[in-house]
Amino acid sequence: MRYSVYKIDAFIRQSVNGFSGNPAAIVPLQEWLSEDQMQAIAAENNLSETAFFVKNSDGIYHIRWFTPTTEVDLCGHATLAAAWVIRNELLDMREIIPFSTQEAGNLMVRALRNNDGGSGLLQLDFPARPGEMLDDTALQQQLEQALGQKVVAICNARDMLVELENEQALHDCQPNLALLSELDTFAVMVTARSDSEGYDFVSRFFAPRQGLDEDPVTGSSFCTLTPYWSKKLGKTQLNGWQCSARGGDAMLQLEHDRVLIAGRCFAYMKGEFALPEAMA
Question: Residues in the active site (predicted)?
Answer without folding.
Answer: 49
